[in-house]
Specification:
By secondary structure, the chain is mainly alpha-helical. The chain has a single domain, classed as Up-down Bundle (Growth Hormone, Chain: A). 81% of the residues lie in helices and 1% in strands. The protein has a two-stranded parallel ribbon with strand order 1-2. The longest helix has 43 residues. The chain is globular.
Length: 485
Amino acid sequence: QARHAGPPDGGWGWMIVAGCFLVTICTRAVTRCISIFFVEFQVYFGQDYARTAWIHSIVDCATMLCAPLGSLISNHVSCQVGIMLGGLLASTGLILSSFATSLEHLYLSLGILTGLGFALCYSPAIAMVGKYFNKKKALAYGIAMSGSGIGTFILAPVVQLLIEQFSWRGALLILGGFVLNLCVCGALMRPIALKEDRKTAPEFLEQDYVPEAQKRDLKRMSICSPLIKAWSHECLCYCSWKEYDFLLMPGFMVLAVSVLFMAYGCSPLFVYLVPYALSVGVSHHQAAFLMSILGVIDIIGNITFGWLTDRRCLKKHRYFCYLFAVGMDGLCCLFLPVLKKFPLLVPFSFTFGYFDGAYVTLIPVMTADVVGTSSLSSALGVVYFLHAIPYLVSPPVAGWLVDTTGSYTASFLLCGFSMIFSSTLLCFARLGKKIKRTQLRSLTNDTGTKQQIWTNGAIAYSVTAELDQKDVEFLAVDTNSYSNR
C-alpha cells in the first residue's frame, strides 16, 4: 500500500469512481425501484398504505442506521471486504424476499437483511472517492453518485417489465442476482494511504502509552502475540475518540440537524410518486416512466452540479449551492398536490430529479469540507446514520396521513416544509457565523482591545478559541512588536 503526499486526483481513482458508480446503482437505485413493488405488495397482501410503506422505510433505515458499521469495517478491516460482504447479504435478502408469505417476512428479508448489506457497501465506497480526489472532488462525486439516477432510469421500466412477465417474486429473484455485482465493485476498491491520515493504534501505543523498558519487551513478544501491542484499553479509547472527535464541531452539529429534516422530506416522494400518479389516472407504464425521468435527470444534476461547484467562481459557495438545491426540492413538493395530469407531472420529475441529484452530490463534499479527508469515512457513516430515523418514520407517517385524509396533499406539504426548514436552518447558521466573525474582527481592530489581548494571555486565548482558522491567521501577528511598543 503506497503512501501518497495527497490525493492523486486521477489514475486508479477513476476506477474507484467507476466502482462507486456501480455501488450506487446496486444500492440506491434498487432501493428507489422498490416503490414500483408498492402496489403489488398492497394488492397481494391486502394491507393499507401505512403498513406497506414500512417495507421501503426499513430498507432505507437499515441502510443508513448501519452506515457507521460499514465505516468501522472499512477503517479496521478492509473496504474491499466490507463491500463484498455487503453484496452477499443484500443479494441473500432479495432472494429470500421472493419467497415471502407475509409483510413481516418482507420486513426482515427485504428490509433488514438487504438494508444491512447496502449499509456495508454505501458509505465506504463514497469515502474512497474522497480519499482519491481533492481538486476534482465534486466532479468525481457527481459521476459516482449519478449511478443512483442512471440506475433508476434503466431499472424502473425493467422492473415493471419483470413484474409483468415473472410476477413480483420473479422480479425480486432477478434483482437478487443483479445485486451480486457489488462483490465486483468491492474488488475495485484498492486502498490508499495518505500522509494526513491519523496514525494507527500500534503507532500511538509505541509512542505514547508504553514506557521504554516495556517497548523492548513488546517488540520481542510482537511476533507471537501482536494483539498485546496493538489493542490496549488506553489505546483503543484514545483512537476511538480521535476517530469521532468531529462530533463536537459546531459546523458538523448544524449540518447533522439539517440532514434530519432534509431526510424526512425527501424519502416519502420516492415511495408515493408512483401510487400518487396511479391515483390521479396515470397508467402503470406512465407512472414507471415518471421514475425513469426522475432518475435520468438526477444524473444530469449529479454531474453538472458537481462540475459547476468545482469551478473557481463557485467552489467557495458550495454551501449555498447545497441549501439552494434542498430548498428547491422542498418547493417542488409543495406544488405536487396540484399536479394531477401526466403532462404536469413530467416537469415535476425533471425539476425534483435535477435538484435531488445536485444536493446528493454535495453531501459528501460538504462533509469533507467540515471534518477533513482523514475523518471522512467516519463522518459519512454518521451523516448517513442520521438519515435512518427520518427514513424509517416519514413514509409510514405519510401513509397514515393518506389513509386518514384520503389524499396525498398533507403528506407532500409536510415533506416540502421539512426540506425548506432544513435549507433555512443552514442559511441562518452561516449568517450567524458571519455576523460573529465580523464582530470579532471589529473587536481586534480596536487599539485598546489589541493591547489588552496581547498583554493578557487568557483573553487572547478566549478570543482566538472562538474564531475559525481564517481568523486565527488574521491574528497571527508578531507579538514582539506589540511588547516593544
